[in-house]
Amino acid sequence: MEATPDGAEVLDPFEIRVLAVLAEKEALTPDNYPLSLNALVNGCNQLSSRDPVMALSEEAVAEVLQRLMQRKYVNGITQAGARVTKYEHRMRIKWSLEQDKLAVLTILMLRGLQTAGEIRTRSGRLHDFKSVADVEQALQFLIDKYPPLVSKLPLAPGTKEPRYGQLLGGEEALAREETAASLGGSVSAGGQGSRVGALEQEVQQLRQQVEELTAQFAEFKKQFE
Questions:
Q1: Is position 119 within any domain?
Q2: What number of other Cβ atoms are within 10 A of residue 201's Cβ?
Q3: Is 109:119 a contact under the CB 8 Å cutoff?
Q4: Is 148 exposed, middle or buried (0-12, 13-18, 19+ CB in 10 A)?
Q5: Tens digits of per-residue pLDDT, 29-63?
Q6: Which residues, including other chains, have CB under 8 Å from residue 87's CB and lie 6 or more apart?
Q7: Which parts of the chain are coiled coil (predicted)?
Q8: pLDDT digits (tens, 9 = 90+) for 105-131
Q9: Domain containing 130 — which CATH number?
Q10: How many domains does the chain have?
Q11: What are phi and psi of 211, to 5 degrees?
Q12: C-alpha to C-alpha distance for 91 and 126, rounded to whole angstroms
């Protein structure tokens, strides 16, 4: 386990994605929360509201969950009579976060560097911020935590509003993200490649489904021949 000089644990990009998806789905689909492994994998690989887009296998997500449970970021819950273990995040407890602060952190974890205005627009169903000032207040709370969870970045050339980034992956990861965004306009240097890979995977899955349906229909037709 890595740690920063001020003692903060450093999470890798996959750990950050898993935690963020758990927090997102807790707010968006409370009836289906805690999440099964399958639902969590689908959320991690979602093509919308993600930057970068990822294509994680079930095995990879299962390994990430084991690490997060060991470090008390996630709970695994097995209900009586249920065959499937479900998972819930503990960020609210671990960092003493109310929903507005958790919503801001979750959006930064899912979508990379953003302005306060972008966070307000995108946080929608996670928390209804009445104004950008409310978002900035939540951001300042996260910046003032010790160790800090969020950093306010210097104004980029040609911009009027500062961007913010989460620090769960460490300051070096945030610096790389900032450099990649300034060079290519993309939050992740590998973001475009990740998107293409994810789209190719989705097309492959759709083809497989069509082939299976075609085979099933052929079997069905035989009954009437």
A1: yes
A2: 14
A3: no
A4: middle
A5: 999 999 999 999 999 999 999 999 999 999 999 99
A6: 22, 34, 35, 36, 37, 40, 65, 74, 75, 76, 77
A7: 196-223
A8: 999 999 999 999 999 999 989 999 999
A9: 1.10.10.10
A10: 3
A11: -60, -40
A12: 15
